[in-house]
Structures are given as C-alpha cells and as structure tokens.
C-alpha cells in the first residue's frame, strides 16, 4: 500500500553525477503517492553532466517523475544553479508538469515560498567558475566516500561522511549555513510568508525563526547525495523524511543492473510519456 502525501519537496538529487543515490530515491518514490511534487532545484546536474555517465537508475527517476505527472500529480520543477540552463524556459508547462524559478503556495491558509536558494550564494553569483570547480571536487569526494563506505559495510562498521565531518568542523561552513537560513527567513518574514522552503546547501532543517518583524518556519529538504532526505507536508504538518530511518517502508526487491544507456534511449523514454 502506497502512502498518500499531500505535498512532497525534494531537492539536490544531482542526476548525472556519481554521488546521486538514484536507487534509494526510486524506492522512496515507489512507496508514495504524492498529490503535489516539488523538485526544488539541482534535480539534473548540468554542471557535472557527462555523456558517458547517465545510468539506467537515473533514467528511471525521470521516468517516475513523468509517470507521476501523467497520473494526476502536480509536478513543479524549480530551477537551481546546477540546472540553471532551464531558467530561460521558466513558466513552461506540459500537462501537470510545470517549470519555474520559484513557487508560492497556499497551504491550509499559510503562505508558502519555495525556491532553491542559490541566489544567496556569492560564489555562485559572482565567481561561477569557482563554484563549478568546487562542485567537481565535491563530486570526487562523494565518489571516494562511497568506495570507503562500501568497505566499511563489508567490515560491519557504520558509514562515515567526509563532507559532513568537514562542514561540522569548519567554522566558515557552519556560519554560511546559519547566515543562509537567517537571510531566507528574514526575507520571508518581511514578505509575510509563513513558510520558506529551500534546498541548495544540502542541510535538512525545520525550525521556527523569529525577528523583530515577525516569525516564519524555515525548511530545507536536504539532498539525495548524503542525507537522502525530503520534506513531506500532510494535514497542516511538515516532517523531514530520512531514507535511512525508514528502510522498513521499502521493497527489498533487487534493483536492475546499473547499466549505462545512450542519450538517444533517454529521449525515447521521455518522448513516450510526453
């Protein structure tokens, strides 16, 4: 039995990169029936895209999203910095699938502002080549981390996250996350939003922020590289959903081999659902 989800927000999937946990994401998506799905930026990683690497498991995610749309789910694709080339097609609609740069919703009378969040990142806005170089370094770090965790699992030991350890021990990274959350929240408060929902920083979060002008709830959906997290909204309540904490909800059936597939085959899969 699939779970009904009123609103699902996922971000930073980074399809087309080695770090993307597409198989886990597919298991999650197969277990739910969302009424509205928001892909909040960096869904496909155009920055790191390589023609030689777009495995079948990544294609299945695209196919699943299109399937949701054809079966009545309202799907909103919000652009991020890694898929910024789609921004010139903002406001494009194809059935239940809509492309946009930001989204404003009314959730049970609460004003909700959803956007990726890279607008607050100076490295993205002013030194894009540095941001892209950092993206490649992060992708390599995740690839190495995946190999290390494979050995740790074989040895019966817990997984270890290199980037989380770095972020938690580098004061500048911690300060950036705090500044990001505060900036987004203060802007939302000034514009009378009750909820502000972001992605970009790969840091799942849900907290109330209070300023002299009012308050709002700041939410971040995290990512599908390390945290494997999403935001679910049901009956007036938000929840951060973690894949690792809910494995009992998913099927144990083996995924198909992660066989690479050509761009021509990708086009065929996409067009047959359009």
From TrEMBL:
SUPFAM superfamilies: Metallo-dependent phosphatases
Coiled-coil residues: none
Domain of life: Bacteria
Entry keyword Transmembrane helix: no
One GO CC term, this protein: membrane
Domain annotation Calcineurin-like phosphoesterase: ranges: 7-204
Keywords tagged on the record: Cell inner membrane, Cell membrane, Manganese, Membrane, Metal-binding
Annotated GO MF terms: metal ion binding; UDP-2,3-diacylglucosamine hydrolase activity
Any Pfam family hit: Metallophos
InterPro entries: Calcineurin-like_PHP (IPR004843), LpxH-like (IPR043461), Metallo-depent_PP-like (IPR029052)
Any one biological process term the GO annotation gives: lipid A biosynthetic process
Stored PANTHER family: BLL8164 PROTEIN, UDP-2,3-DIACYLGLUCOSAMINE HYDROLASE-RELATED
Official protein name in the record: UDP-2,3-diacylglucosamine pyrophosphatase LpxH
Origin species: Halpernia humi
């Amino acid at each position: 039995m699939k779970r009904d989800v009123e609103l699902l927000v996922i971000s930073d999937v980074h399809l087309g990169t080695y770090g993307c946990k597409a198989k886990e994401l597919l298991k999650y998506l197969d277990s739910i029936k969302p009424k509205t799905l928001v892909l909040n930026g960096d869904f496909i990683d155009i920055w790191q895209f390589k023609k030689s690497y777009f495995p079948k498991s990544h294609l299945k995610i695209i196919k699943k999203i299109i399937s949701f749309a054809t079966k009545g789910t309202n799907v909103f694709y919000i652009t991020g910095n890694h898929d910024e080339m789609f921004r010139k097609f903002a406001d494009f609609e194809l059935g239940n699938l809509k492309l946009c740069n930001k989204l404003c919703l009314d959730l049970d009378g609460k004003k909700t502002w959803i956007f990726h969040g890279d607008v607050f990142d100076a490295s993205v806005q002013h030194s894009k080549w540095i941001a892209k170089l950092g993206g490649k370094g992060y992708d390599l770090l995740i690839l190495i981390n995946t190999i290390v965790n494979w050995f740790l699992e074989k040895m019966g030991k817990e997984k270890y996250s290199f980037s989380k350890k770095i972020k938690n021990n580098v004061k500048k990274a911690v300060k950036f996350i705090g500044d990001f959350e505060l900036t987004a929240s203060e802007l939302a408060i000034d514009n009378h939003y009750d909820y502000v929902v972001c992605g970009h920083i790969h840091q799942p979060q849900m907290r109330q922020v209070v300023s002299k002008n009012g308050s709002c709830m700041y939410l971040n959906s995290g990512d599908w590289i390390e945290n494997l997290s999403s935001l679910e909204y049901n009956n007036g309540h938000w929840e951060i959903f973690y894949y690792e904490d809910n494995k009992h909800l998913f099927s144990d059936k083996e995924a198909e081999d992660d066989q690479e597939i050509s761009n021509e085959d990708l086009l065929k899969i996409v067009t047959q659902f359009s």
